[in-house]
Specification:
binds pyridoxal-5'-phosphate; alpha/beta; single chain; two-stranded antiparallel ribbon; 2 domains; 396 residues; globular; 41% helix; 7-stranded mixed β-sheet; Aspartate Aminotransferase, domain 2; Aspartate Aminotransferase, domain 1
């Protein structure tokens, strides 16, 4: 913080307003991102699966214990690869929460699946195990869980349900980097998992993702699907004399520009996480009073899960209150945002499906509010946000 900023705040403490908006998110550079990109360009190999991609793969396997992993251009890509790997076909049913990002569903819809939406839990937006159980049928081929805000779903119960019924589990761990379930890294538990390095996540590369493969049966084919349905990777390792079209696939691998940026972020993962956890704790601390008065609900972390500080959200009492709070914050140049619209009520889904009742999903759609959260958020700005939210509830 510069001295000038400090003076400004003290001088105008009651009327102070930031001229520039405090955004919800802001991409940032923390280490050698640009140096590594330059090195990748100069090394003469800028397409995918080069040195930096391999550095990233090694990092992930070593730190999180994934059996195999492949960088992709997005989490959406990784989910699409998962749907191909599971041989999802017309009419197969795939169970997933309605309260999720559209890519979770689209990846399976593209292969002809019937998407079956489950409800969220009362205590957090993660999918409810009983809701999944009630939806399992002989046609169920996969369950996709979403670790919302990086907080683990109830994986033991979900894996047992899946194994008892011969169903595959895909973890949408887009928000789950550096988070654990009973000591196991998210993304290492399901048969397959997908991460995102979109600029809104903890670790970023602009766009970017990762497929993790935790079941040996999928390893060889994952690499082929990744490389446009060819055995090009085996060719470069000298295992086959020529590479050929051997399966379906697409161009899922990112260029070395993306991998170089990502690797520089990974080298700083501990610094990034320390900062994010401190921001999360500041928010949590700052709202203790209004929470104890029953004015808002704050996120809770179950005993079996860790907090990777992916996001900080509040639960308002109802939609009207949330709308007023967003407006109040906008008037102070603070950008707070709601999150998913329940997919079971989306125009696309309702074209082919009847409306069903998923009350918890609707509750989060209407009451959850995400606060500005990014590596470079300063204490000054964060305290200002906390103050304005407390003002809203105390003067309501
Ligand atoms: C961000 C996100 C995605 C999409 O990630 P991309 O890398 O942008 O494709 C998918 N699912 C969830 C739960 C997400 O939060």
């Amino acid at each position: 913080m510069s001295n000038q900023e400090k003076v400004e705040v003290i001088d105008n403490s009651s009327t102070f307003n930031f001229k520039e908006e405090i955004p919800f998110n802001k991409p940032y550079i923390i280490g050698k991102e640009l140096e590594y990109i330059e090195d990748a360009v100069k090394s003469g190999k800028l397409s995918g699966n080069g040195k930096y991609s391999k550095f990233c793969h090694e990092f992930f396997k070593k730190r999180y214990g994934f059996k195999e992993c492949l960088l992709t251009n997005s989490c959406t890509d990784a989910l699409e690869m998962a749907a191909i790997l599971l041989n999802i076909e017309n009419g197969d049913e795939v169970i997933m929460p309605s309260y999720t990002f559209v890519s979770t569903a689209n990846a399976f819809e593209l292969r002809g699946a019937r998407i079956i939406f489950a409800d969220s839990q009362p205590d957090n937006p993660n999918v409810d195990v009983q809701s999944i159980e009630a939806l399992i049928s002989p046609k169920t081929k996969a369950i996709v869980v979403v670790h919302y805000a990086g907080v683990a779903c109830q994986m033991d119960e979900i894996m047992k349900l899946a194994n008892d019924n011969g169903i595959f589990v895909v973890e949408d761990a887009a928000q789950g980097i550096e988070s654990y379930y009973k000591g196991r890294a998210l993304g290492s538990i399901g048969h397959l998992a997908a991460f995102s390095f979109h600029e809104t996540k903890n670790i970023i590369s602009g766009e970017g993702g990762l497929l993790t493969v935790n079941d040996d049966r999928f390893i060889a084919r994952a690499e082929i699907i990744w490389e446009k349905g060819t055995n090009r990777s085996a060719f470069f390792r000298g295992e086959v004399a020529k590479y050929n079209w051997v399966d379906i696939g697409s161009s899922y691998l990112p260029s070395e520009v993306t991998a170089a940026f990502l690797f520089a972020q990974l080298e700083n993962v501990e610094t990034i996480q320390e900062k994010r956890k401190s921001l999360w704790n500041n928010y949590h601390q700052g709202f203790q009073k209004i929470e104890s008065q029953g004015l808002v609900k704050l996120p809770t972390i179950p005993d079996f899960a860790t907090n990777n500080a992916h996001m900080f959200y509040l639960l308002c009492d109802n939609l009207e209150e949330r709308t007023l709070l967003i407006k109040h914050l906008r008037s102070y140049n603070i950008r707070a945002v709601f999150h998913y619209l329940s997919l079971h009520k989306s125009p696309y889904f309702l074209k082919e499906n009847d409306e069903k009742d998923l009350p918890m999903s609707d509750l989060y759609e209407n009451t959850l509010l995400r606060l500005p959260f990014f590596y470079e958020l300063s204490d000054l700005h964060q305290n200002y946000i906390i103050e304005k939210i407390n003002d809203f509830y105390i003067n309501k």
